[in-house]
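Hey, I'm writing a tutorial for new members on how sequence and structure tokens pair up, and I'd like a real worked example in the thread rather than a made-up one. If someone can provide the structure for the chain below, I'll link this post from the tutorial.
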Amino acid sequence: MTVGVAVFGSVLAINDARSSDDDQATVVTTPTTTPTSNASGGLQAGALQFVPQTFGSDRSPVSSDVPTGWTSTQLGTRPRFVDPTGVWQLRFDARGSKQSPDELVDARAESIDEQNLQVVSRDDGTLVYTYTDKTRGPRMGISRWLPAEDGDRSVIEITVGGRPQDEAGLRAVLDRATNSLILPEGDNRPN
């Protein structure tokens, strides 16, 4: 008889003691990663670790914390960081805009062309929405525009994406990216 026990990615198989005294236990180990989802599959804020990343241009570099292990799929002023599974993403648009954050929230809400789009909220320069992706199923996006000192312009857009059950984790990623953001001194984007 063989009994299997799974503990954090390791499997221990023990042969029945009735077989013979020469039988030995066998240990099979599989690699593990830091857990980022729970049983329901949601992104867990407490399991995330972050690392600073620099992007933008040589003339106007920007840095912000992104989750460890998420890689950039494009560089420059519009970098996009994706987790290894491709389920979650963090995107920046560091070009700035002459429109205020609230104007950009309204414009984005009107321009999203996705199936079953529902705007959950649009407060303080942040748009929260859900939709159904034809390939990946239910999705959630949260986009935040940060105002310039005068409040009439926006200096950067930060967007996170995932599934509706990832909302707490997505908000943690967005908040960390916002709070760790470093713009060049004297920044006056858009230029």
